[in-house]
Automatic annotation (TrEMBL):
<feature type="domain" description="EAL">
    <location>
        <begin position="23"/>
        <end position="276"/>
    </location>
</feature>
<protein>
    <recommendedName>
        <fullName>cyclic-guanylate-specific phosphodiesterase</fullName>
    </recommendedName>
</protein>
Length: 278
């Protein structure tokens, strides 16, 4: 038994060792991904349930690794946040989204693009200048950009985050609180924040109408949005039942596989044409 225990122990050490090497390799690959042009963006339509119009798109980052294939952002974004490379990657995302917004506007599709802004990016001193400068360089009206920030962005330095978001918002950029309800939800920051949208996290939408608690949480966020005069967008809408419930309940905006998966630009354009013809 002792012998077996020891083998197990060695196996355990070996696997941790392997994990550390894997992670080091991933970090190394990630640091070259921009240069090697392994990133691209996909766009998921955001729909107004009342007017049945597409109001914009969320830009989502994809990393096509030559060996691993598509690496999920939930896996590599935290790594990029940890080693700081999210600052450079996030700037690339913004540039790319602006280029796309310009292309679409020129084609008669003046869509608003929502870009995810990491808490690490928001902490940078230069972030406000970087964002406003990028819009200006690409000749994009600020109203064409939405920033999705999570509640963790407000945790380290609330007043700093408030000040920066205020400047961005005054310039015309709209702000959405992403993953609302999953983190540090405080009504105090909502009062202080220049926020226009609350995004109900998909974990509450998945079992909507099946799980009583999730349904109540979604209801509460919708009501909170109404009373604070913020529009509420549901993410992860996958079924007609969810869409029907949300629109009846007063949630006017939605995004999810029920409408469309995140798409490459050309497919997105085809989707928009088909959707608006329905
Ligand atoms: P998120 O911002 O909460 O994005 C929503 C995620 O839900 C996306 O996953 C999207 O593809 C997925 N999704 C959309 N509709 C549905 C649906 O109907 N059902 C289900 N099950 N999922 C749906 P994705 O693209 O894998 O991104 C995961 C997370 O990675 C994002 O969560 C965001 O936190 C982060 N991320 C993605 N792109 C960027 C980026 O450019 N910058 C930063 N900082 N983070 C990003
Ligand atoms: Ca998001
Ligand atoms: Ca989410
Ligand atoms: Ca998220």
């Amino acid at each position: 038994a002792k012998q077996k225990g020891r083998d197990h122990f060695q196996f355990y050490v070996a696997s941790i060792d392997q994990e550390i090497r894997d992670r080091k390799q991933l970090e190394k690959d990630l640091s070259q991904a921009l240069t090697l042009q392994q990133f691209h963006l996909v766009y998921q339509p955001q729909i107004n349930l009342e007017t049945k119009r597409i109001i914009g798109a969320e830009a989502l980052l994809r990393w096509e690794h030559p060996v691993r294939g598509l690496v999920p952002p939930d896996y590599f974004i935290p790594v990029a946040e940890n080693n700081g490379s999210i600052v450079e990657i996030g700037q690339w995302v913004l540039e790319q989204a602006c280029l796309q917004a310009k292309l679409w506007a020129d084609k008669g599709l003046p869509l608003r693009i929502a870009v995810n802004l990491s808490a690490v990016q928001l902490r940078q001193d230069r972030i406000v200048d970087d964002i406003l400068g990028t819009l200006k360089r690409h000749n994009i009206p600020a109203g064409r950009l939405e920033l999705e920030v999570t509640e963790t962005s407000f945790m380290t330095n609330l007043s700093d985050a408030v000040a920066k978001l205020h400047t961005l918002n005054r310039a015309g950029i709209s702000i959405a609180v992403d993953d609302f309800g999953t983190g540090y939800s405080s009504l105090t920051y909502l009062k202080k924040m220049p926020v226009q949208h609350l995004k109900i996290d998909k974990q509450f939408i998945r079992d909507l109408l099946v799980n009583e608690e999730d349904t109540q949480i979604a209801n509460t966020i919708i009501d909170l949005g109404k009373s604070l005069n913020l529009s509420v967008i549901a993410e992860g809408v996958e079924t007609a039942e969810q869409e029907y419930y949300l629109s009846q309940r007063g949630c006017t905006l939605a995004q999810g596989y029920f409408f469309s998966r995140p798409l490459r630009p050309a497919d997105f354009e085809t989707f928009v044409q088909g959707f608006h013809q329905k």
